[in-house]
Design brief:
Aminopeptidase, about 30% helix, alpha/beta, seven-stranded mixed sheet, binds pyroglutamic acid, two-stranded antiparallel sheet, cytoplasm, single chain, about 20% strand, PGPEP1_Cys_AS, EC 3.4.19.3, hydrolase
C-alpha cells in the first residue's frame, strides 16, 4: 500500500508549520505501507497542481493531508471539503480569492472517505484529544482537501482525507489563552491515524462525532 502524506510550509505570520515538521518525522514504512512525503506550498492553485503531479508519479492508494489549525485544541479529523475558496489572508503567493469555486465541474462538497470516526476513537484511546471537524475552513487546507477528493475520484480507488493539528507550544508563547499540542503528541496521533487507515478499509464505526452547532 502506498500512502501519500503531505504537510504545508509556514504561512501568514507563522515562521514554522507543525504539519510539515511532523510529516518529516513520520517513518517511511509503517506496517506494509510505504509513506511518500510531500511538502505543499500554502498557495491555492499550486497546492492542487503539485498534488496531482505527485498522484501521477506515485499512484497512491491513500492521500492523507495534514495542516495547521491555529486556535484548535485537539487533533481534528475533517469530515468534508467544500467547493469554495474564500481567503481572509493572502496565500504565500499573495493570492486572496473571494468566493471562487475550486472546480467548475466538481461537486459542491466531498466527504472524506477515510474511517474518520475510527481514527478519532483510536487517537483518544491513547489519551490524545481528538474530534471530528465539520469544516476545514475556506483557506488552502480546505482547497487541498477538496482537490484530493476530486482527484481521488478522477484517478479512482484512492482514499483521501485531511487532519488538522494544533499550534506547537513555541508558537503560542506570545498568544495568551491559545491552545497548543507538542509535536510528539501530534506525531503519535498521526501515526495512529495511518495505522487505522491501513487496518480499516471498509465501513467506518457508527459512533457519534456530531455537534449541536
Ligand atoms: N493551515 C492552513 C493552510 C496551511 C495550513 O497548514 C489552513 O488551515 O487552511
Amino acid at each position: 500500500m502506498k500512502i501519500l502524506l503531505t504537510g504545508f510550509d509556514p504561512f501568514g505570520e507563522d515562521k514554522i508549520n507543525p504539519s510539515i515538521e511532523l510529516v518529516k518525522k513520520v517513518e517511511e514504512k509503517i506496517g506494509n505501507a510505504e509513506i511518500f512525503k510531500l511538502e505543499i506550498p500554502t498557495v491555492f492553485k499550486k497546492s492542487g497542481k503539485i498534488l496531482e503531479e505527485n498522484i501521477k508519479r506515485i499512484r497512491p492508494d491513500v492521500i492523507l493531508c495534514i495542516g495547521q489549525a491555529g486556535g484548535r485544541s485537539s487533533i481534528t479529523v475533517e469530515r468534508i471539503a467544500i467547493n469554495i475558496d474564500d481567503a481572509r489572508i493572502s496565500d504565500n503567493l499573495g493570492e486572496k480569492p473571494i468566493d471562487e469555486k475550486i472546480r467548475d465541474d466538481g461537486d459542491n462538497a466531498y466527504f472524506s472517505n477515510l474511517p474518520i470516526k475510527k481514527i478519532v476513537e483510536e487517537i483518544k484511546k491513547e489519551n490524545i484529544p481528538a474530534e471530528i471537524s465539520n469544516s476545514a475552513g475556506t483557506f488552502v487546507c480546505n482547497h487541498l482537501m477538496y482537490e484530493s477528493l476530486y482527484l481521488a475520484k478522477k484517478y479512482k480507488n484512492i482514499r483521501a482525507g485531511f487532519i488538522h493539528i494544533p499550534y506547537l507550544p513555541e508558537q503560542v508563547i506570545n498568544k495568551a489563552n491559545t491552545p497548543s499540542m507538542d509535536l510528539e503528541n501530534s506525531l503519535k496521533a498521526i501515526n495512529i491515524a495511518i495505522k487505522t487507515i491501513i487496518n480499516h478499509n471498509g465501513e467506518d464505526v457508527k459512533i457519534s462525532g456530531g455537534k449541536i452547532s
